[in-house]
Each structure stands twice: as C-alpha cells, then as structure tokens.
Amino acid sequence: MKAIIFAGGVGTRLWPLSRKKSPKQFEKIISNLSTLQLAAGRLQPDFTWENIYVSTGKPYVSIVQEQLDQLPPRHVIGEPQVRDVGPAVGLMAALLMKEAPTEPIAILWSDHLVKKEALFRKLLTTAGEVITKNPDKLVFVTQKPRFPSENLGYIQFGKAVQTVNGVEFYEFVDAHYRPDVETAKQYMEDRHHGWNLGYFVTTPKFLWSLYTKFAPNLARDITRIADAWQTEAFESVLDRIYPTLDKINFDNAILEKLNPSDAFVVMENIEWSDIGAWEALKEALEDSDDKNVTQGDVRLEDTVDSLVYNYNKKQLVVTIDVDGMLVVNTDDVLLVCKKTSVPKVKKLVESMHGTEHDHLT
Q1: Which has fewest Cβ within 10 Å: 258, 270, 288, 315?
Q2: Pairing assessment for the beta strands 193-202 and 153-164 based on DSSP bridges
Q3: Which alpha helices (DSSP H) does 242-320 contain, by range?
Q4: What is the mean pLDDT of residues 156-163?
C-alpha cells in the first residue's frame, strides 16, 4: 500500500510564521517538528519510505527532501504552478497508474494533526485490505465530529455494510460542503455525518477512471505529462503542460459526481485537527478552553485562553492580564490579535501584496 501526502498550500491564516517562501507545513509548529514531518512520521512503521510520495510546489522540493531525507528523491513531485487540488490529485493518480495501478493508495494532507496515530494507521491499512478485494471502490476516512463545525465539510453515510478488523464500513450517501451552524448541529445529532478530512483510500486505476469519466479534458492533458514519467523529459513536459491545466477543486471535479455505490465510509475519533489557522492550532493542543498554548521563550502572568508563540530566540515575550488572545513573534513580525480575529489575518496578508511589506507575506 502506498501513501501520497499533499504539501502544496501556502497557509496565510498561519501568518507570520507561514510565508510564501516557507509555508506552514514546513515550519516547526509542534514539538520542533513540521506538520509535514508529523504526517510522514505517523505512517511509520506500517508504510515504508519506499511507499510514501509527496506532492508539493516546485519551489519547496528541496525543503521536502531536507525534512524527509529518507524519502527517495523521485518520490517528491514538484508542481510548477498552483492549479488547485483537482489537477494535483489527478497527476499523482496518473503517475502511480504507471507503477502499481491496482495497489491501494491513501490520499493524505500535510497540515493536519492526528493524535491517535495507531488507530489512524489501522483505519488506513484496513481500508487498504477492503480496497484490495474491491479495487473499483473508494473508502472515505472521516473524523467523528467533536463539535458542530461550520468550517469543515461533512461526509454523510448510511447503514453499516461490513466489519473488518473491528472497523465498521458504512454506505456512502453524500458529501456536504461547509454547512451553517444549525445544519452542523443536526449533523452532530443524527450521527450519520463525519468530518470530511480529504482522506481516502482507493486504487490509482479507479481514481484515474473517475478523471477520465468526469474531467476528460483534465485527464487528457495529465496523460501527456504521465507519458513522460521516469524519462529525462519529465520535468520539461511537466513545466510546459501543468500550468495550462484547468484550475479546479477535487470536490468539484470528482467528489460531487461520485456514485454513492462506488464508495464506503469509516468514521472514528482519531483526534484529528486542521491546524491551518492559529485558533485551530490552539484548539488542537489545549487541555481545556481556558488553558494557554505556548512555544519558545515566553512568560505569562494572569493570562488565560491564549496562544503565545515566540520564534525569536533573542527576545522574551511577556503577557500580563491577557484573555483569549494570539501572540506570534518572529524575527521580523509581531502579530497580536483576538482569537476571533484570525479570519482577518488572510485579508491583511493579501492587502500587503505589492506594497513595501510584500517581502513579509
């Protein structure tokens, strides 16, 4: 079984730590490790380095190779231009079609936290067993909702169809994009919706068949790239064709058109968190709502429910009488804001493009 970790985003909601030159998935956020390193590490020992691939942006290939130095260099694919998730997943499906078309693959992402790693691996490997017997299926791996989130998608499932290794596999019913809070509460209550993590297990052959069926123009152009895989011309062909691919999200290109009979769903509490924003990182790491989350040289006095991260080794960060705040100190930027103000961070970064502060974005 193989795993593909996608590590191509920029992550402006984690600014000023995450920048264009070094996005969030490569920064040391937890235990002096990047989330990319955590994503690859939690697959061990069930996945060997020979069975792990990383899809990233071309400017970040050297960072990936440095942080995952046991990964074979040819397993790091650098996209020359961001074309959204649809082309990124399609390209990896086409490339692995060349190597092992019917071997199960796990589609994973580099900017998440999973605390129950052993259970997570069990879900992936068990899903791999099911896909081995059902190569023309797809298994969604979902998180049991912890709260009615408006910022996440949901996978709706029906009755249980089989149990393998103690893992329940359910009928796939539908996928729902970010609901309003009342709808999210209903999803929590009916117990037939899991958070859509973007994780799934299938075979390259089946995944590629979905592209040829639902996104034929994209599949045609990706095929031209895949035909050069493992040749000296691959990089030049990739650089020439990939920037011309249709820019489309995977959900719009494939997921929304998927026949429910073609998929299963598993849902467990793997203690997953999307740490793409500072308030989400705090929620993932805190012991309780009023607790603080810190990193670096900091001193807190009468401070509650705050995240204080100091990356400047030459400074001490001190907070006094602070409640519900985010403080992030880097060598060239100090961010101070309320937890509830995090959505404004992305807009701020976008407003800095083309200004005298563009180099800080």
Answers
A1: 288
A2: antiparallel
A3: 250-253, 278-285
A4: 97
Q: Determine contact, residues 12/349, Cβ cutoff 8 Å.
A: yes
- Considering the domain delimited by 2-274, tell me its CATH architecture: Alpha-Beta Complex (3.90)
Residues ≥6 apart with Cβ < 8 Å to 291: 304, 305
The DSSP call for residue 47 is S
Give dist(CA 124, CA 122) in Å, integer: 5
Map out the domains of the chain as residue ranges. 2-274, 282-341
193-205 pLDDT, tens digit each: 999 999 999 999 9
Q: Is the pLDDT of residue 345 over 80?
A: yes
**347: which 2 tokens?**
């807009």
The two three-digit tokens of residue 342, written as one number: 């995090």
Other beta carbons within 10 Å of 141:
28
> Quick one: tokens of 269?
């509490």
pLDDT computed for residue 158 by the predictor: 97
Concatenated DSSP letters for 11-68?
Answer: -GGGTTTS-SSS-GGGSEEETTEEHHHHHHHTTTTTS-GGGEEEEEEGGGHHHHHHHT
Task: Give the pLDDT band of residue 151 (cuts 50, 70, 90).
Answer: confident
333-357 residues labelled b (16+ CB within 10 A) or e (exposed): bebebebeebeebeebbeeeeeeee
Spatial distance between the Cα atoms of 275 and 27, rounded to a whole number of angstroms: 12
The model's pTM is 0.89
Tell whether the model's pLDDT for residue 23 goes beyond 90: no
Give the range among 147-151, 231-235, 271-275, 321-325 with minimum mean pLDDT: 147-151
